[in-house]
Amino acid sequence: MKAAVFEETGKLSVQDKPVPTLNSGDVLIKVDLCGICASDLAALNGDITDYSPPVVMGHELAGIVVESRHPDVKIGEKVTVNPMLSCGNCEYCRADLDKYCSNIEGIGHDIDGGYAEYLRMPKHGIDTGKLISVPDVISSEELIFLEPLGCCINAMRETILNKSVAILGAGPIGLMFAQLTRKTGLQTFVLEPLAHRRRTANEVGADATLDITAEQVETLIEQTTGGVDTVISATVNDQRAIDLAFKVVRRGGCVNFFGLAPGGQELRINLEHFHYMGHKLMASWAFSRWSLNESRQLLTDNEINLKPLLTDRFPIEGVAEGFENARQQRGVKSVLVGG
After folding, report:
1. Into how many domains does the chain fold?
2. Are 39 and 127 part of one and the same domain?
3. Which alpha helices (H) appear in the chain, and where do they start and end?
4. Which has fewest Cβ within 10 Å: 25, 130, 133, 318?
5. What is the mean pLDDT of residues 25-41?
6. Does the pTM of the predicted model rise above 0.90?
7. Residue 155's pLDDT band (boundaries 50, 70, 90)?
8. Residue 331 shares a structural domain with residue 232
9. What is the pLDDT of residue 263?
10. CATH number for the domain including 273?
């Protein structure tokens, strides 16, 4: 089978690999689509280090079970995965905080993932509930968003929300956040420098979309009488994004630095100023089993519009082109086609 292998920083290659063989309790998934995630771009750049190359990347997948050696899994099931395989027994796992388990193996991070024609889901992952079966009403084009949508739902539960919110960035994550905040009844502003992504933000129902020019930022501050209650930064948290977040949040407001940051990026705060401004600063990442279940239900009930988000498809052999397309933000979401 064809597979895209992350070999080391800066090196991603297409290889011919054997179709995975199964042990007792494993299942084999034929991958239909797999989304290119910003974390994969960051790992290839060397900006984050929670990967164990060489490894087949890819964790936002949609597929079909084609072989099962597990008594609870049937051939033909439409599935995706919770890609954090944890111990299932520690204090964190029992509290639905699997992401803090000290025995994490990440699909597409530490064990082979979905940038391939086939994926082996190990018995331990199935036994701990990490194989997610979905009804046929959910298309593969929607199913690849179940995991990132779960990340957004998790962040929504953690974030201090009031009446208004600014979403920084109209990539796939920002566009899902915008829909979730609108569903919650929040006045939702999306700030995005790229015109084609602003158009998509309008399409999915943002109350207003703005460029990040000084004039547009001042317009937002005026419209909200001093700034929004909450900022969710759904973009790369470089210094420009950090400065913008503090510019548009009101006194006493909350900033959630959800997006990844470039390697070495620091957040420096004058504590006296911070004290009197009263900002609440936080960072959310990943998902919980609860939020993935909520995500599955939203997709099943067709309560979120994901159709405008998937814009570009690439074969596995074209993974380099797909990564560059995503890096240049030419569309919204780029995916690899499994085969």
Report:
1. 2
2. yes
3. 38-45, 91-94, 123-127, 140-143, 146-158, 172-183, 195-203, 214-223, 239-248, 271-277, 289-300, 319-327
4. 133
5. 98
6. yes
7. very high
8. no
9. 86
10. 3.40.50.720
